[in-house]
Amino acid sequence: MLGLKLLTDPRWANIAEGNLEEILTDHAWCEQKAASNAITLITQNPELEDLVHELTAIAIEEMEHFKMVIEIIKERGYTLGRERKDDYVGQLMKFSKKDGSRNQAFIDRLLFAAMIEARSCERFRVLSKNIKDEKLAKFYYDLMVSEANHYTTFLNFARKYATDVDVDKRWQEWLDFEGELIQSYGKKEYIHG
């Protein structure tokens, strides 16, 4: 469904489970950044009523996820650490086209968001199937479903609003780039690490 070129090695879940405080902190900040990205897309495209409506709901849902992760951190006696730099997201941002038309930049921002949601969905699936903690496994299963919905929302908006971009071709370029990029990740207790 997601079209990702390389799936995460299930052993990554063992790395994550070995340092739950770290993975939960990283996850919390990923949710906050996802909400911020949705808000940025809204502020840059306020005339697109359906996009504003849908991305407002996503931003709220992402902040609800942030709150849920914070509650898990607190329940377990952990502390929310500072925001982590996300090298994976930084590399995806560099791949985004910024020098074309306004529409090309907009479509790439939507595809950038779809890619992050797709990989997050895939990582949450790995966690839900491979960690021993049943409560967290269920939590990550539920989030996997949510992230899949976000992924399709961003991809559908890219297809709807593209005027001078072949979205399917550009999405394939994103998938190819991410497939190469992700080979360097999956070794740390970060959602995209």
Automatic annotation (TrEMBL):
Pfam families recorded: MiaE
Extent of the signal sequence: none
An individual GO BP term: tRNA modification
GO MF entry, a single one: tRNA 2-(methylsulfanyl)-N(6)-isopentenyladenosine(37) hydroxylase activity
Superkingdom, taxonomy of origin: Bacteria
Positions of transmembrane segments: none
Protein name: tRNA-(Ms[2]io[6]A)-hydroxylase
